[in-house]
Amino acid sequence: MDVTEKASAMLRELREEHGPLMFHQSGGCCDGSSPMCFAQGDFLTGDADVLLGQIAVDMKNGGTPELIDVWMSREQFALWKHTHLTIDLVPGRGAGFSLESPNGVRFLIRSRLLTDEEDAALHGSEAPDVRVQTLP
Question: Rounded CA gap, 65 and 82, in Å?
Fold first, then answer.
């Protein structure tokens, strides 16, 4: 997982205003199709969610980078587990409950397929290849 500098800048602002943050990507329609940023603990995760990892965002004071948990619904993760995700920030109206929405911007997930090496490192060499393959 990665985060762009534009997204990091917004996360620094949101952290100052709201305290520690978290992301959740549900994979549903409408608001759920975008990564939503919440104050940590304002969105309750459970057995239907997977902690993908954390993104590190350098804070303005130059201290230790802030670690932000990134969650995804288990159902959505099953479809995206072979992708590298980058959280970006673009102009536009985002999810109504996501903290960045009053600023006229929205967070967006950009993805690419993992390389075979990245996939093996994350899922082991026994992981089935579920990507589209061209048959001879």
Answer: 27
* Residue 33 burial (10 A CB sphere; 0-12, 13-18, 19+): middle
pLDDT surpassing 80 at residue 29? no
pTM: 0.83
Length of the chain in terms of residues written: 136
Residue 85 confidence (pLDDT): 93
Residue 30 DSSP class: G
Query: What's the DSSP call for residue 62?
Result: S
57: which strand partners?
66
Main-chain dihedrals φ then ψ at residue 129, nearest 5 degrees: -90, 110
DSSP characters for 73-126? EHHHHHHHTTEEEEEEEEES---TTSTTGGGTEEEEEEEEEPPHHHHHHHH-TT
Q: Which of 92, 66, 55, 87 is nearest to 12 (CA)?
A: 66
pLDDT in tens, 111-127: 999 999 988 888 775 54
Tell me, what's the pLDDT at 132? Answer: 43
